[in-house]
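Quick one: structure for this chain?
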Amino acid sequence: MHELTVIENVLQISGQVARDNQLRRIDVINLDVGGMQHLNEEIMQHGFDAAKKDTVASEASLKIFWLPVKLRCNACSRVFGTDNGKFHCPGCGSKDTEVEQGMELNIKSIEGE
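Got it. Here's what it folds into:
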């Protein structure tokens, strides 16, 4: 289960940030997740609730901000979104595209005291 590994890493990194910044507790972890990560939010939330016990984030909530997939056409430089799994440019039809947004998996911020 990929989601549980992600959550364990998020909690480990958040715990280190809390120690480095002398936080007694973490209240909120804000996470940016790109659409190409193919993670299930419900599984992530359940995993977070289970894994946070006995940590500095034991009372924390996890807020996930989903970032849509955006591609850039290398032929015409057009930036476009895709929600249908098609990676060719709607402007010029080129299949020479790069992911500009959608691969992210970042801790955006940690709130606590």
